[in-house]
Design a protein that fits this description.
about 350 residues, alpha+beta, Creatine Amidinohydrolase, Chain A, domain 1, Creatine Amidinohydrolase, 2 domains, six-stranded mixed sheet, three-stranded antiparallel sheet, 10 helices, elongated, binds zinc ion
Length: about 350
Amino acid sequence: MDVGARVHRLRAALDGAGCDGLVVGELTNIRYLTGFTGSAGLVLVSADELVFVSDGRYRDQAAEEIASAGVDARVEIVAADPDRVIADAASAAGITRLGLEAESVTWSRQQRWAGELFDGELVATRALVETLRLVKDAGEAARIRSACAIADEALERCRGALLDGPTEAEFAQHLDTTMKSLGAADVSFETIVASGPNGAKPHHHPGARAIVEGDLVVIDFGALVDGYHSDMTRTLAVGAVDEQRRRMLDVVLDSQQQGVEAVRSGRPAAEVDAACRSVIDDAGWGEAFLHSTGHGVGLDIHEEPRVSTRSTATLVAGHVVTVEPGVYLPGIGGVRIEDTVLVTDDGCDRLTLAPKEPSAG
Ligand code: ZN
Ligand code: ZN
C-alpha cells in the first residue's frame, strides 16, 4: 500500500471542493491517510503540510505508525483541545477556506469552529476522503482477499458442527474463535447466526435458540485483516428441508448469481441491484427482499459504493462490493447469500469462495 501518496490525491481534490485545507476527524479516513490505527486523532491537510494531533496515550504509537506508513507529517501530542491546535495550525498555514467533514462533524462542534476557532470560511465537505477510498490498490485488495480466505476456511471447519444442535450463540462463537485462530485480528462485525424462524430477521442477534433438523441457518460473518474487512453470508440447511425452504434457497441462489454476473466496470450499481431483484420479483417474493443488494467493503464494513435501487454510483475496476440478496418470510425463516467481489474491467473477481451448497454436513 502506498499510503504516502494518498494525501497528494486528497490535495488535488481540495480546490474542486471549494477549500484550501481540510480537517479530517473520521478515524477510518485518518487511518487511510496516515496509517494511524488508534482511537483518538485529528488531522489537518493543507497545501504543503499534514498535521496530526492525538493525546499522550498515542505518543509512541502515532509516531511509529505514521513513519512506517511512509507519511510525511507533523505529529503533535496534546493534553487537551485538539480542535484548537488544528485551528491554530490552519491559521498559521494561511488557510482561508477550511473544509469540515459535514457527514460527521456535529452541529455543536461546527458552531464552535464558526464562533470561536476559525475566522475564515468554513466549507461543508462531503466524502472527499471516502471518494479516494473507493478504488482499492493492490495492497488493499490483498488484505480483503486474505480476510475473505480466513472466513472461507473458518466456515469449512465449523459448518459440520451445525448438526450437533448448538445454540445460535454457540455456533457464532465457534466461528469467531476459528477466524481468530486462523489469523484474523478480529471479527469484521458481530456475527449473525439466524436459525429457523429467526432467519426472517436479516440482522438477528444470535441467541439461545438451539439449531434443529429442518432449519435453514443464515450465517453472515467476516474477518478483519490489517484493518480491512470481509463480508460473506451462506444459508445452510440442517438435514432435509421442506419444499418451500428448498425453493427459497434456489431462488436466492439464482438471484445472487445473476447479481454477481452483472458486476463489471462501467455498469451502474443500480443495475446489479435490479438483476438480483428481478429474479426474486419473478418468484413472487419481491416484498420479502427487505434490504438493498450490497455495499462497498474496505476499511469500513459498510462503505461506498452502495448497490441499491437508488444508487447513482457506477462500478469501477478496483471497487470492492457485496452482492447479497435475500428472502425473509415471517414465521418461516430466511435465506441470504452474499459474496464480496472485486470489480474488474470485464466482470468481477469473487473473493469469498465458500461453497454455496446448503447442506451443513
Ligand atoms: Zn454480510
Ligand atoms: Zn454485507
